């Protein structure tokens, strides 16, 4: 089969590799019908995630059709159409039994495209298939479903829920890429009074307005001024970091009010300065997190009901064998206007 293989920082190739097989009774082999690229894949290619070894197939967001199942798989059968979650869960360990699937101790967590071969391929082996996939309704398209693998649950759980967004809050979201836009969309479920989006790219700020941000800012100085004016100088109730670089985290810490919440969602490859000399007295809560995907069934029902439009995130479409072109478009989002790309078989 063909797959997108990581060969070290800055090196990747769409190349021939062995087709996966069932290795464990809990496995399923899935034929990929739709897949997308994540900002985390770009972090890997920059060398920000050293655990990813050369030779690894990348990707952790896909939809497909089950081709083969292991002997212990009871909830799936060949021919089933499934969403493959970005988080694999054994379902048995201490963390999985409390819904903290991202911290799975039984061989799960974020492993696809990280510690085991991922989904940017024609076929993928999915460990713990019963608990790491979701059966898809016929009326939810592959393109709408694929955003449920990662960006929607990540933004919702790690940004909106961890940030404890409440009615009438002023919420600032730094970074209007796919995660930031998903945070804008799902924050609206809690009726904040204002959603402010901050990004350098005009195209992404335009998208932020379309997704529900009522105010945008293109610089840190503009963001500080807007937040100050809207809140009488207090600061934002919730600041969601959706980029993963030191400057954006530090900006969130500046924008949040005393007693407020900074919810870090971005994947960081470098240290950021934590200004405890000013934060210690302000009762600020800072949370970080890897998504657990415990919200995926709820979000899937909302997509099925038309309450969330998953396809709205998709700006560019490719055939599966156009992986290199898709990466080029996604990497140069500032020029191409790419939000989420989808590749379909």
* Main pleated-sheet profile: 7 strands, mixed
Distinct helical segment count: 12
User: Which percent range fits the helix content?
Assistant: 25-40%
Shape: globular
| Strand residues, percent | 15-25%
Tag the structure with descriptive keywords.
345 residues; alpha/beta; seven-stranded mixed beta sheet; six-stranded parallel beta sheet; 12 helices; 15 strands; globular
Outline of the structure:
The protein has twelve helices and 15 strands. It is α/β, with parallel strands linked by helices. The radius of gyration is 20 Å and the shape is globular.
Description of the molecule:
This protein has 345 residues and is α/β, with parallel strands linked by helices. It is built from 12 helices and 15 strands. The chain has helices at 39-46, 129-132, 142-146, 151-161, 178-187, 202-211, 220-230, 246-255, 276-279, 296-304, 323-331, 333-336; strands at residues 2-6, 12-16, 28-36, 62-69, 81-84, 123-126, 133-135, 170-174, 194-198, 215-217, 236-241, 256-264, 285-287, 314-319, 340-344. Strands 3, 4, 5, 6, 7, 14 and 15 form a 7-stranded mixed β-sheet that branches. Strands 10-9-8-11-12-13 form a 6-stranded parallel β-sheet, with helices on both faces. Helix 8 (246-255) links the parallel strand 11 (236-241) and strand 12 (256-264).
Spell out the blueprint of helices and strands.
Layout: E1 2-6, E2 12-16, E3 28-36, H1 39-46, E4 62-69, E5 81-84, E6 123-126, H2 129-132, E7 133-135, H3 142-146, H4 151-161, E8 170-174, H5 178-187, E9 194-198, H6 202-211, E10 215-217, H7 220-230, E11 236-241, H8 246-255, E12 256-264, H9 276-279, E13 285-287, H10 296-304, E14 314-319, H11 323-331, H12 333-336, E15 340-344
Parallel strand pairs: 8-9, 8-11, 9-10, 11-12, 12-13, 14-15
Antiparallel strand pairs: 1-2, 3-4, 3-6, 3-15, 4-5, 5-7
């Amino acid at each position: 089969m063909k797959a997108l293989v990581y060969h070290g920082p800055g090196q990747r190739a769409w190349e021939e590799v062995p087709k996966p097989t069932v290795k464990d009774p809990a496995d399923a082999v899935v034929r990929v019908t739709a897949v997308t690229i994540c900002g985390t894949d770009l972090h890997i290619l920059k060398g920000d995630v050293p655990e990813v070894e050369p030779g690894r197939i990348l990707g952790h967001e896909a939809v497909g059709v089950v081709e083969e199942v292991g002997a212990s798989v009871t909830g799936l059968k060949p021919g089933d159409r499934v969403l493959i979650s970005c988080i694999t869960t054994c379902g048995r360990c201490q963390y999985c039994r409390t819904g903290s699937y991202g911290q799975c101790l039984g061989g799960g967590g974020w492993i696809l495209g990280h510690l085991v071969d991922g989904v940017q391929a024609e076929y993928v082996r999915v460990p713990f298939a019963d608990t790491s996939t979701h059966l898809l309704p016929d009326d939810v398209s592959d393109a709408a479903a694929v955003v449920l693998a990662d960006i929607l649950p990540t933004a919702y759980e790690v940004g909106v829920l961890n940030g404890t967004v409440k009615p009438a809050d002023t919420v600032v979201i730094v970074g209007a890429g796919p995660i930031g836009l998903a945070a804008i969309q799902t924050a609206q479920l809690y009726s904040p009074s204002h959603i402010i989006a901050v990004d350098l790219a005009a195209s992404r700020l335009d998208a932020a307005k379309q997704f529900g941000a009522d105010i945008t800012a293109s610089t840190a100085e503009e963001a500080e001024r807007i937040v100050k004016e809207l809140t009488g100088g207090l600061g934002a109730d919730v600041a969601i970091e959706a980029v993963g670089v030191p400057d954006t985290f530090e900006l969130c810490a500046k924008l949040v009010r005393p007693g407020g919440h900074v919810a870090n969602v971005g994947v960081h490859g470098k240290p950021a300065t934590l200004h405890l000399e000013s934060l210690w007295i302000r009762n600020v809560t800072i949370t970080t997190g890897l998504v657990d995907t415990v919200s995926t069934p709820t979000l899937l029902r909302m997509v099925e009901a038309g309450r969330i439009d998953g396809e709205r995130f998709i700006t560019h479409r490719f055939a599966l064998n156009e992986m290199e072109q898709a990466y080029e478009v996604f990497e140069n989002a500032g020029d191409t206007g790419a939000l989420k790309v989808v590749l379909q078989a």
